[in-house]
Amino acid sequence: NNPFRQAFPVSMCSLDKLRILKMHSSHFEFLPMSFCNLSAITDLTFDEESVLAPPQTILREGLGAIVNYNRLVLGAVVDHRLNLDSLNLDHVPPEICTISGLTDLQLNSNQLVVLPPLPYRSGKGPTYQETEIFIYDVCVDKSRCCVPDLMALTSLIIISVRDNQLEALPDSIGRLSNLTSLILDNNKLGTLPEELGQCSALLHLSVKNNELAVIPVTLGALACLKTFDADWDSRISSPPKEITSLRDKKSIQYILDYLKLYLEAKEEDELDLIEMGLKEIPQELLDDGIGHILITLKSLSLANNQISYIPDAISQMTTLIVLDLSNNWLTDIPDGLCELASLEGLFLDGNAITFFPITFGRMKRLHTLSIIKCKVSSFPPS
To answer: Residue 261: how many CA atoms within 13 Å on its side-chain side?
Structure first.
């Protein structure tokens, strides 16, 4: 009947012959890591709802599970490796975020939905707020107030969180500059944070059997990446299949080089996607939320592909000055292309175009038009 909320006294953890421990209404929030020394206990009772660490899923399993969990965590302080596979965890225990020097973290086959600090954030974008809580610092064996943040463990080299329920990753994952292996198979991820491209040491990335359709172009900056497993043949639509289908023949570097083109285009305002077997204009080019160049690009070449259709979304490329669509399978010019008011040079050589729309005259700045090997018979008055 202790009325004060506090940690279980560390000094009592030296009672290695203790057999009976009753803590009804004692309000102990934390059972210290050294609680595992009390392995002789045969009769243990306490109020589960008041204990914050170990996690509830461990407490419900009883003394044996508590002792085993605490030993795993204490061992990680020494050897910097922690395996918490198959413990039915529905959240990452906050105390894990205090293990400085941790290099290898295995959280496979649990029920995790997000990783810290996401559970302690509210709001979106740069205006989000973080909530501090009391957590048990396993390195100093006492509680402190902070925001649990797994991404603050910059010593991490390996993270494996396969077979969970992950729906999102923190954008602060880009802080893990030593990370070489990230395994996220069999989850529910709908997106990957663009900041993942800042994990410059990453060698192995696996995101198979998730809900991903788009791979961020920022991953083109991962110069060290050797293996990248994803649902290339099914769910992934960006990069296009014409690029991803060549990963076995040309290695994963071919995909990364393609993504890197968009990063370079963002700096240079020019993009060349020549002779890549493209059957349509790539999604990442027309969706500024993916490629980030839609409203800044000045020069674009899609020559020598198999493009037969130009979507009206191309009209959003308001800064485009030069567009090369030579040697494709185009049969007409859509009105959307005619909305490119800044266009000065248009190259349509080698297409099956036979006429120009009446809206073609809207491109007032156009001074170079090349239609070699086209069969255009007449032009509109405009």
So the answer is: 20
